[in-house]
Amino acid sequence: MGCGHKDDKASLASSQIVSFSHQPHQPPSTPASKEVWKKGGRMFSVLLAVHLALLACTLVSSGAFEKIAVHDYDVFFLLTVMMLTVIIWIIFYLAGTSRCPDAILCKDSHAGPVWLRGGLILFAIFSLVMDVFKIGYYSSFYSCLSAIKIIYPIVQAIFVVVQTYFLWISAKDCVHVHLNVTRCGLMLTLTTNLAVWMSAVTDESVHKAHSKLKKNVTEEIFRWLLKAGMRSSSAEECNCNSQICQIFKNGYFWLYPFNIEYSLFASAMVYVMWKNVGRFIDHHSHHIHHLKFRLFRRTFFVGIVLGLIILVSGLGVLILYEVQVNSSAESSKKSQALTMYYIFNIVCLGLMSLVCIGGSVIYRFDKRDMDRHKNPTRTLDVALLMGAALGQYAISYYSIVAIVASTPRDAISALNLTYALLMIAQHTFQNIFIIEGLHRQPPKEDHKHDSHQKDLYGLTFVNINAVSLRVPDSGSTLAPSAASGTEAIHPSDLVRSLTAPKKMNWRRKFLREISMFLLLSNIILWIMPAFGARPQFDNDTELNFYGDSMWPAIVDICLPFGIFYRMHAVASLLEVYIMS
């Protein structure tokens, strides 16, 4: 395929030529021509993504149950084909589309910020390690497994490397050639990442359920597995007796959360690229802000220190919880672990809620304007925050109904109720704080004020005697000779200019402290459920109320969204911190 423009590109070019020839003062593209790129090609790519997503979801969900004649290697075969297709398209994009003349006329400065791409690379590294562990695990008994079980992690590793490189260099592109092919390729990439995410979440849930079932098969909490006929991995039917095999097996399951987050991060960045296909950016309204990340400057360290205390304490609670709940069969140990977990989360969520309310109050005194320009990245951030929070909202409301309607009520039930209520409040207040912070204009430096302030500083330190001698008691303006050719300066202006930076920066300092504290707190609240601390499966109240089939299904569906919410909140809070 050559670098020829598609129909919508040709119509844009013709409209621009007409506008230049007849109306030289009119912008090169009219609003009507800018809307051409949003029509047919977009709809076709969306339909393609919907059908592929439904097919992948059907296979993944069917492959999780024993009674359905869909095996896990069927799922792996589909995912392998999808990933290979995406790899071929990315190579075509990098080698062909992006090198065409006038292929990328502009870039979206808001898309793919460096901290988001840095997080993508971090998760990609752990995903590659997970693939290495998978290859080592399946290679230990390749004779009794299908070949696709070994091919799949190899292809996934190649897919992660190619996609990460592609997103690192092309996340800001606004492509104007091969529009329909690019839209379909990006939607295929998005669907593939979501399919890999669904497969990883399902595989992790089945593994955790079977691990608990093997430890104590008499527990009523796991009887729903037997009723549902949950499938075990085909690899478990082979012998894995060697020490190295066990290390590979346990290692790649512990790395699943990183691969899950990688797929979601990549999906978000690909979606923004899809929105920017064919987009023309008005540089008069699209301000480019060069922001510098200064972690240890202009801060009181209160937010960082308090956040680190929460983070370290949470890691200790997580370790004790895993030891007492998963390694001990005593009910008293289990109750102590749940009590410790709920108390820590209640304190953490309470502090985060209060801090978010304080940040929203500080915004009322912030004089920065709201940014109302079109920004697909910010729109996606807001949608993901609001959508992902629904998962935790659902779990919390189900818990509240079960606790209130159940009898008798003990101390753990009271803690669980408080935890659920605070979880709802914290998500709500944090979303308000983050969304308002994302819509604030970055701080602007007033050059006129800066030059005037510089003159005052020069006047103060160079000709301080003249100033002190020539200022009358009546408060009149300074003599022109004292200003050495500058404007007449009032003494009150001098004092105000010298003290202005301290008065102006207190809001920004407090907002930075709040953002950093919330960032560190969200990290530990992501780590705890992602690495096994899930009291929803260890508390009997909800299980007894909803049944041992309904409640685990609710948690398995909703909890991945809650985990993703925490990690996306970390990325958004980092942006709010830098914008403050």
From TrEMBL:
<feature type="transmembrane region" description="Helical">
    <location>
        <begin position="341"/>
        <end position="363"/>
    </location>
</feature>
<keyword id="KW-0812">Transmembrane</keyword>
<dbReference type="InterPro" id="IPR004878">
    <property type="entry name" value="Otopetrin"/>
</dbReference>
<feature type="transmembrane region" description="Helical">
    <location>
        <begin position="114"/>
        <end position="138"/>
    </location>
</feature>
<keyword id="KW-0375">Hydrogen ion transport</keyword>
<keyword id="KW-0407">Ion channel</keyword>
<feature type="transmembrane region" description="Helical">
    <location>
        <begin position="43"/>
        <end position="63"/>
    </location>
</feature>
<feature type="transmembrane region" description="Helical">
    <location>
        <begin position="295"/>
        <end position="321"/>
    </location>
</feature>
<keyword id="KW-0406">Ion transport</keyword>
<feature type="transmembrane region" description="Helical">
    <location>
        <begin position="75"/>
        <end position="94"/>
    </location>
</feature>
<dbReference type="GO" id="GO:0005886">
    <property type="term" value="C:plasma membrane"/>
</dbReference>
<keyword id="KW-1133">Transmembrane helix</keyword>
<feature type="transmembrane region" description="Helical">
    <location>
        <begin position="551"/>
        <end position="578"/>
    </location>
</feature>
<comment type="similarity">
    <text>Belongs to the otopetrin family.</text>
</comment>
<dbReference type="Pfam" id="PF03189">
    <property type="entry name" value="Otopetrin"/>
</dbReference>
<feature type="transmembrane region" description="Helical">
    <location>
        <begin position="383"/>
        <end position="405"/>
    </location>
</feature>
<protein>
    <submittedName>
        <fullName>Proton channel OTOP2</fullName>
    </submittedName>
</protein>
<feature type="transmembrane region" description="Helical">
    <location>
        <begin position="510"/>
        <end position="531"/>
    </location>
</feature>
<feature type="transmembrane region" description="Helical">
    <location>
        <begin position="150"/>
        <end position="169"/>
    </location>
</feature>
<keyword id="KW-0813">Transport</keyword>
<keyword id="KW-1003">Cell membrane</keyword>
<dbReference type="GO" id="GO:0015252">
    <property type="term" value="F:proton channel activity"/>
</dbReference>
<feature type="transmembrane region" description="Helical">
    <location>
        <begin position="253"/>
        <end position="274"/>
    </location>
</feature>
<keyword id="KW-0472">Membrane</keyword>
